[in-house]
Amino acid sequence: MKETLRVGIFDWIEAPQNGKAAELYAHKLELAAAADKAGLHAYLIAEHQGTPLSINAQPSVLLSAMIQRTSRLRVGALTFCLPWYNPYRLYNEVCMLDQLSRGRLEMGVGRGVSPIESKIFGLSGIEESRDKYRETLEIFFAACRSESLTYQGKYYRYEDAELHLKPYQKPYPPLWFPTSNRESIEFTARHGYHTAVLAPISECKALFDQYRELWEKHKNDSGRHNAHVATPFLAKTQHLVIAETDAEAKRLGEQAHSKWASRIHHLVHKFGRPEHHKTDPYAADTVQPLVTGTPRTVLEKVAEMLRVTSANYLLGIFSFGDLAPEHAMRSFELFSKEVMPVLLAKEG
Fold first, then answer.
1. For the chain, what is the domain count?
2. Stretch 178-205: mean pLDDT, rounded?
3. Does one domain contain both 162 and 252?
4. Does residue 196 belong to any structural domain of this protein?
5. How far is CA 124 from the centre of its chain?
6. Which band of pLDDT confidence, cut at 50, 70 and 90, is reported for residue 272?
7. 161 and 39: one domain?
8. Residue-range definition of the domain harbouring residue 6
9. Same domain, yes or no, for 163 and 270?
10. pLDDT tens digits, residue range 221-249?
């Protein structure tokens, strides 16, 4: 597998402190435009429901706005939570986004990590969520191959539903599937999905090594979901705050990371359930660590993270928690001008 480092952005689209969602969305669109100008590969956004961790309840809306403000940047959801959608409507939304962007859409798929959020959509548990995910994905693939949709499953039935849209990319946009364990790595690698590993840094290399071995073994199999992608991305997300001094970056970063951590635990705290992730910003076993500093400091830390994990895709998280938009934009500016070019030259 010939690999070249790529850099993108990941964003939860967290609720703003002042309740002014319009200003928050405007900030995200400004960040997307800056990423486009700086030559980043993609801007990927989360989908969550009923939590301040995300006010991006319909990713297609924000992605559509990003498409209109960019010309090269790829955009996508990581992920579209498939059990929460009507499959026919999802198919058409994906086709519209891919056509509007002229083939710049990335399509993350998943079942939705939170059972609490899934209950909003009447899902009874993980079993139903998993079944609906699989059925929705089957319907999406079937629709991409046909001029009309006829399908009879456990949850969905369509009888000659006409399809007047097709994806711009053939046969459909590149697929992503984030993962956190060895069991799902096998499925992800066998089908060649791009992936983002949700694991402590020390565990990532073993998972990526497993992926690469399985991908090599199955890369010529028939029926692979992501067979149209020649080289899969193995991504690691990374909270980043860069400033003119190490002290200023540390102060801003730790405050923002603390606010983000409170939001990622919001629902489990509300319902008295145990926390799923360690969120100490510097703990060895944290899933979402924090890197702060001057451009030079951050360059050294990120290069080491990439070396240790063997990731070939860096998904920087620049706008998170209660970090003010002006600080997030300054952080990204310093990254794109002083960190990213050196990283790409070293890792490319």
1. 2
2. 91
3. no
4. no
5. 25
6. confident
7. yes
8. 1-174+228-232
9. no
10. 999 999 999 999 999 999 999 999 999 99
Residues 159 and 256 in one domain: no
Residues 12 and 157 in one domain: yes
Q: Does a structural domain hold residue 207?
A: no
Please state, in angstroms and rounded to a whole number, the distance separating the CA atoms of residues 167 and 95. Answer: 4
Query: Same structural domain for residues 155 and 269?
Result: no
CA distance 340 to 314: 10
Instruction: Supply the pLDDT for residue 269.
Output: 73
Which residue in this structure is represented by tokens 């939860």?
12
Burial class of residue 218, CB neighbours in 10 A (0-12, 13-18, 19+)? middle
The confidence score (pLDDT) of residue 17 equals 84
Q: Is residue 73 part of a domain?
A: yes
> Beta strands 42-45 and 74-81: pairing type?
parallel
The mean of the pLDDT values for the chain is 94
The answer to whether residues 83 and 154 belong to one domain is yes
- Where b means 16+ CB within 10 Å and e means fewer, 264-280 reads bbbbbeeeeeeeeeebe
pLDDT digits (tens, 9 = 90+) for 87-106: 999 999 999 999 999 999 99
Given a contact cutoff of 8 angstroms between Cβ atoms, the answer to whether 122 and 84 are in contact is no
How much is the pLDDT for 348? 57
b/e map 248-262, b = 16+ CB within 10 Å: bbbebbbebbebbbe
Identify the CA nearest to 286 among candidates 206, 205, 210, 204: 204
Q: In terms of Cα–Cα distance, which of 110, 16, 10, 98 is closest to 60?
A: 98
Q: Tens of pLDDT along 1-30? A: 678 999 999 999 999 988 799 999 999 999
Q: Tens digit of pLDDT for each residue in 128-168? A: 999 999 999 999 999 999 999 999 999 999 999 999 999 99
Q: Which letter, b or e, does each residue of 156-172 get, where b requires 16 or more Cβ atoms within 10 Å of its Cβ?
A: bebeeeebeebbbbeeb
Phi, psi of 168, rounded to the nearest 5 degrees:
-70, -40
Instruction: Identify whether 193 is part of a domain.
Output: no
What's the predicted TM-score (pTM) here? 0.96
Which are the contacts of 154, defined by CB distance < 8 A and separation ≥ 6? Answer: 131, 135
% of the chain surpassing 70 pLDDT: 99
Which amino acid does the sequence have at 117? E
**Domain boundary residue among 232, 251, 271?**
232
